[in-house]
């Protein structure tokens, strides 16, 4: 079964990130459709996903439509019992569901004051007392989850749906420099280093769209994730490869990395690779060959 997923801007749409990670991390077949905030076509795009009012939205092969992130997660969990989307242990399973529900309906100060922005950090941000109350509650919930789960960097040991749900929270903590304890900081770091998260962010960087609606009016700093290899677009080949590492198509666009030139079938494939080469296994296999 292949699903259709409508998402928004990759640098800013936290709920889209959650849904995309669910499909990406668990290798669930999906066709991705993209729209953009604050554009006239946003409302037009949504008409084809009735009764959706925003993103993300998922359509199943049966014609069923899930128009809410929590509904998407619960629908996919129900449709794919073979996947370890939630912990097996009943106590941990109920805790994971509760954490997702609380994220879905709560933490309004954090969500309002600290909208997700994966393009850079905000320096000199001063969180309000309400934001810090949200952070305190989140850290407590993460500690509770780890007390129930097994060993590993994720909340219940292995990566699960609940971790996809909290990935944008980790991005907010990192992007706004919000103070957390060591255990929470390690969990945030696990998200920033997660290859799937890095691919999502790289695609946003490739789009290179900055929304003034998310501007905080503060000095900007570099994104705090792992430092990427320094690749640059170049106008011409020849390249070491004759076919795109992603599509297999003929190469038309090129990048240079450490004195070597590689080709891609279009500008998007090139630019997402330039943004973070190590996030893309197909490219790294080519690079290391």
Automatic annotation (TrEMBL):
Residues 12-74 form the GST N-terminal domain. It holds the Pfam family GST_N_2. Gene3D superfamilies: 1.20.1050.10, Glutaredoxin. This is Glutathione S-transferase. It comes from Thalassobacter stenotrophicus DSM 16310. The lineage of its organism: Bacteria, Pseudomonadati, Pseudomonadota, Alphaproteobacteria, Rhodobacterales.
């Amino acid at each position: 079964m292949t699903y259709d997923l409508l998402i928004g801007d990759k640098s800013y749409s936290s709920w889209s990130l959650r849904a995309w990670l669910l499909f990406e991390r668990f290798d669930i077949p999906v066709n991705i459709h993209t729209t953009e905030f604050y554009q006239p076509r946003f409302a037009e795009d949504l008409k084809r996903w009735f009764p959706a009012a925003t993103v993300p939205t998922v359509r199943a092969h049966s014609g069923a439509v899930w128009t809410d992130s929590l509904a998407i997660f619960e629908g996919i969990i129900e449709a794919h019992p073979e996947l370890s989307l939630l912990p097996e242990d009943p106590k941990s399973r109920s805790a994971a569901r509760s954490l997702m529900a609380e994220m879905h309906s709560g933490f309004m100060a954090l969500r309002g004051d600290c909208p997700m922005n994966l393009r850079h950090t905000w320096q000199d941000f001063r969180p309000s007392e309400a934001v810090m109350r949200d952070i305190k509650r989140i850290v407590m919930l993460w500690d509770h989850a780890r007390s129930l789960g097994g060993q590993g960097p994720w909340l219940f040991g292995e990566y699960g749906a609940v971790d996809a749900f909290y990935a944008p929270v980790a991005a907010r903590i990192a992007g706004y420099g919000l103070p957390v304890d060591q255990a929470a900081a390690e969990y945030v770091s696990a998200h920033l280093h997660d290859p799937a998260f890095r691919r999502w962010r790289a695609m946003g960087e490739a789009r290179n769209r900055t929304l003034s609606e998310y501007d905080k009016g503060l000095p900007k700093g570099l994104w705090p994730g792992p430092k990427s290899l320094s690749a640059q677009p170049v106008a011409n080949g020849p390249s070491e490869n004759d076919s795109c590492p992603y599509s297999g198509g003929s190469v038309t666009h090129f990048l240079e990395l450490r004195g070597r030139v590689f080709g891609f079938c279009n500008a998007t494939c090139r630019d997402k690779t330039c943004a973070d080469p190590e996030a893309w296994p197909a490219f790294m296999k080519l690079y290391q060959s």
